[in-house]
């Protein structure tokens, strides 16, 4: 069975994320420096946009690294390249083109000149919560193309789940027991300090 099919059958798709050894392995294989990273699936311009989007979604704080520092753009690129079928790849590319057109409305603009504020405005305008109506989808309910909101929500969802599954977060932020062997009785919040259990092994 091809790796793409194996990963699809056991883990992550654009609508479902299950932490499995192959998904963790794919995430661990992303080790390139963000500044020197050359995307496999996305173009260089799309890679810049993706890196900026994930860092607006999960920025660096005093306590935590940003999403790009944990190689989340590389993971999304690798996943799109190795797991998405050709149809989904084409839909992603088309939707990414629409996002870039919003960020740089004319050919004289370069993607490097797009500011973090521009990315924030883009996400504010197109990220949706459950009760929101995607006007683009409402206008074309039968279209197979991803709307801008669908793409950005998908990227947000993949970013958050990959971030929580990363080695750094699993070992340093979440409750982590690398060799579980003892059983404990007590209040779960007291035993973990109120943290969720890490799935990282």
Describe what you observe in this structure.
52% of the residues lie in helices and 0% in strands. By secondary structure, the chain is mainly α. Helix 3 (44-57) crosses helix 8 (148-165) and helix 4 packs across helix 8. The chain starts with a helix and ends in a 9-residue tail after the last helix.
Quick overview of this protein structure:
With 201 residues, the chain is mainly alpha-helical. The chain is built from ten helices and no strands.
List keywords for this structure.
201 residues; mainly alpha; globular; disordered N terminus
Task: Give the secondary structure arrangement, pairings included.
Layout: H1 3-10, H2 21-28, H3 44-57, H4 72-82, H5 86-103, H6 116-126, H7 135-139, H8 148-165, H9 167-172, H10 188-192
Helix pairs in contact: 3-8, 4-8
Unreliable residue stretches? 1-16
Determine the fraction of residues in helical runs and give it as a percent range: 40-55%
Number of helices: 10
The secondary-structure element order is HHHHHHHHHH
Proportion of residues in β-strands: under 5%
Largest sheet: none
Structural class: mainly alpha
Mean pLDDT: 77
| Quantity of strands, as a count | 0
Shape: globular
Distance between the termini: 25 Å
Instruction: Give me the Rg, rounded.
Output: 18 Å
């Amino acid at each position: 069975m091809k790796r793409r099919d194996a990963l699809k059958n056991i883990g992550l798709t654009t609508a479902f994320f299950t932490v499995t050894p192959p998904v963790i392995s794919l995430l661990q294989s992303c080790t390139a420096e963000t500044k020197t990273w050359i995307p496999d699936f996305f173009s260089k311009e799309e890679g810049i946009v993706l890196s900026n989007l994930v860092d607006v979604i999960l920025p660096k704080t005093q306590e935590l690294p940003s999403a790009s520092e944990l190689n989340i753009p590389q993971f999304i690129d690798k996943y799109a390249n190795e797991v998405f079928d050709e149809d989904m790849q084409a839909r992603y590319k088309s939707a990414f083109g629409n996002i870039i057109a919003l960020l740089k409305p004319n050919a004289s603009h370069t993607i490097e000149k797009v500011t973090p504020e521009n990315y924030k405005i883009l996400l504010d305008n197109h990220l949706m919560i459950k009760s929101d109506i995607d006007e683009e989808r409402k206008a074309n309910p039968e279209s197979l193309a991803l709307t801008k909101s669908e793409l950005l929500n998908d990227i947000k969802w993949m970013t958050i789940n990959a971030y929580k599954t990363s080695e750094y977060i699993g070992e340093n932020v979440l409750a982590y027991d690398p060799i579980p062997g003892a059983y404990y009785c007590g209040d779960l919040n007291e035993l973990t300090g109120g943290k969720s259990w890490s799935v990282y092994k």
